[in-house]
Amino acid sequence: MALSNNFRFILRIYRMKKLFLACFAALATVTFQVQAADLTEGKQYEVLALEHSAQPEVVEFFSFYCPHCYSFEMQYKIPEKIKQAIPANASFKQYHVNFLGSQGENLTRAWALAMAIGAEDKIRAPLFKAAQANSLRSMDDIRQIFIDNGVTAEQFDGSINSFAVTALVNKQTNLAEQFKVRGVPDFYVNNKFHINMEGLSHDNFVQDYVDTVNELLSK
């Protein structure tokens, strides 16, 4: 009799677990649908009259001189959070714009060099800090920052005006013109969607930014 009662108890727990899992799955589905329904064209994003990218991708335009870009990168870490959240098959790229600061064009070329040699993580923060302090007067100042952060003088001098770096400079400039970038930070998804930060939640801005980018990647 004790064995029978134990069996009934185990069966009852099993059925309760199944009911709980079914309710949880239904709730998750409803939650996702609500979140998806909350993403509205003209609010969180705008649709561009451009061809959809072949592969999922996120592009950020920024300037080392831009204080909001500095906050996005150094304080709120929005680019890093986006990189961590997007699917493995999606790419995240950061492109520099020319139109801010006296060394804007030189910084675009310097960032192209950083991308070409894989030194973005070494020089991103130092260049941000130098530009925000308005301490950059020439390419020589930028060169010294590269050297101080692990890039050899030979590597910098041999690559800064190379064909590969110049091609990346042109790519950044041409894409900024194609997207008609007028202010930064500015994010684009799949070559088709422009994030409208004014339409994002003020109470949960960072997470809403990340979630909006992630959801647009699937469109």
TrEMBL record:
Cellular compartments annotated: Periplasm
Residue ranges of every copy of the Thioredoxin domain listed in the record: 25-174
Entry GO MF terms: disulfide oxidoreductase activity
Entries under InterPro entries matching the protein: DSBA-like_thioredoxin_dom (IPR001853), DsbA/DsbL (IPR023205), Thiol_disulfide_DsbA (IPR050824), Thioredoxin-like_sf (IPR036249), Thioredoxin_CS (IPR017937), Thioredoxin_domain (IPR013766)
Superkingdom field: Bacteria
Gene Ontology cellular-component annotations: periplasmic space
Keywords: Disulfide bond, Periplasm, Redox-active center, Signal
Disulfide bonds: 66-69
Pfam families associated with the record: DSBA
PROSITE patterns: THIOREDOXIN_1 (PS00194), THIOREDOXIN_2 (PS51352)
Signal sequence coordinates: 1-36
UniProt similarity note: Belongs to the thioredoxin family. DsbA subfamily.
The protein's name: Thiol:disulfide interchange protein
Encoding gene (name): trxA
